[in-house]
Amino acid sequence: MSKFNKQFKDIQGGLSTEVTKADVGEGTGNFVKNGGDNMAWADMFFPDPSIPESVKKATIEAIETGFPSHYTMPIGQLELREEIAKHVSKKINRDIDPSRNVVITPGSDAGFIFSLMPFLDNDDEVLIPDPCYPSNYMNCKLLGAKAISVPTYPEDNYQIRIEEMEKRVTDKTKMVILTHPNNPTTTVYRKDNLIALSEFIIKHDLILVCDQAFEDHIFDGIEFISPCTLPGMWERTVTICSMSKGYGLSGYRIAYIYTNEEFMDKYYGACVNVVGAPCTASSAGAIAALQDETILPEYYTRLERRRTIAYDILSTIPGVKMNKSESGILSWLDVSALGNSDEVVQYIKEHANVLVNDGAAYGEMGKGHIRIVTACFAKDEDCIVRLNRIKKALTQLAYEKGIH
Ligand SMILES: Cc1ncc(COP(=O)(O)O)c(C=O)c1O
After folding, report:
1. Which residue from 4, 28, 131, 380 has the least number of CB within 10 angstroms?
2. Ligand 1 centroid vs 208 CA: distance in angstroms?
3. Tens digits of per-residue pLDDT, 17-53?
4. In the predicted model, is pLDDT for residue 199 greater than 90?
5. Would the CB of 255 count as within 6 Å of ligand 1?
6. 212-239 burial by CB neighbour count: b if 16+ within 10 A, else e?
7. Is 247's C-beta closer than 6 angstroms to any atom of ligand 1?
């Protein structure tokens, strides 16, 4: 069939040709059905049930009223926008108006492509620090724009080199997309780096779309700055946040975009067409989550412990280089001494029966690395068993390569 547009022409979902992506087709499902473990989905405590009690209660109570058979407003229920506005206002020290600065989206994946739509025309160029969340590249492609990778380096702790951005900016450049904190590296961009980035963005009259899905858990007291708070950036930044990562509520599909009124007017105008409305029952649960001040601190303690456990087990594998994670639920390992990252992923799958991610999926700079979702499984012991299986497999691989 030759009717597909140029954006979709070479996109594949695993139905006609096998694809290696973990998130399409039944490959992952079949692997798990056959006893394998999936540590490739960035989903806290997956596959164990983990709805906080207050959230469960609010969701059930909402369902018992019968009201969730109906739509919320397409931009999201007012009470939820109010809670979010309170939460964001406190974080960024700016008054966020729930009816002028916030739109709720059914997850930030949907929110993310929506956030790009008012800006990107065919052949616009978008600068994207690499490695990063794969959707940064794919969403540009889906909208007919051109993703331009900008390498970031482990020796800089993956901070952005502005000279690398300058080398790639052209008169077609419209936007920078930032995953902050970064997925897969867990890097938190530091204040001085973000100030330099914002000066670059203002100098070249660009838009910043900042995906902060992982902002809720930052370790080691590292300061987290939302770039929209930097001088001159509120006018040109769209920020996307999610209840999926920090609150472990990925199945609730609640995320939100906040930005200035000029941009938000576009999202309000096109909201029903692009993202429909968020789930009404989930909205009730999300309100309860935001009101329950115990959830984030409790999860922080568990995630901080988990990233240390993961580091202690994985960093001692011969041939593996890694840092302790700076944020969230992931571990990022340099396995280049053990072979190509796709071979290492395959080796782990075959010898440890665990699915992890090939770093190459996150961009050119991800090659030679693997990502492991080390906050999988609710109990530390269940995670430790899998991490030790990975360690045993990679130690064997290192031995085969002559690395002891
Ligand atoms: C950086 C980043 N942004 C956004 C998402 C999408 O999350 P959700 O659609 O559940 O909000 C993910 C999911 O893995 C992610 O890693």
Report:
1. 4
2. 17
3. 777 665 666 678 888 888 999 999 999 999 999 999 9
4. yes
5. yes
6. bbbbbbbbeeeebbbbbbbeebbebbbb
7. no
Q: Which of 245, 249, 332 to mutate to test the pocket of ligand 1 (most atoms within 8 A of CB)?
A: 245
Domain limits, the chain: 27-50+295-400, 53-291
Question: Cα of 216 to ligand 1 centre, how many Å?
Answer: 13
What phi and psi, each to the nearest 5 degrees, are found at residue 56? -60, -45
Mean pLDDT for all residues in the chain: 96
Q: Note the CATH architecture for domain 53-291.
A: 3-Layer(aba) Sandwich (3.40)
Q: Is the CB of 244 under 6 A from ligand 1?
A: yes
Shortest CA distance to 114 belongs to which of 7, 16, 209, 14? 209
What lies within 8 Å, CB to CB, of 220 at 6+ separation is 324, 326
Question: Rounded to an integer, what distance in angstroms lies between the CA atom of residue 372 and that of residue 293?
Answer: 29
Rounded Cα distance, 246 and 244, in Å = 6
Q: Which atom of ligand 1 is nearest to the CA of 242?
A: 11
Would the CB of 250 count as within 6 Å of ligand 1? yes
27-50+295-400 fold: Aspartate Aminotransferase, domain 1 (3.90.1150)
pLDDT tens readout for residues 64-111: 999 999 999 999 999 999 999 999 999 999 999 999 999 999 999 999
C-alpha–C-alpha distance, residues 251 and 57, integer Å? 16
Is the Cβ atom of 326 under 6 angstroms away from ligand 1? no
Question: What percent of the chain stands above pLDDT 90?
Answer: 92
Is residue 183 in contact with ligand 1, taking CB distance under 6 Å? Answer: yes
50 C-beta closer than 6 A to ligand 1? no
Query: Atom 13, ligand 1: which residue's CA is nearest?
Result: 42
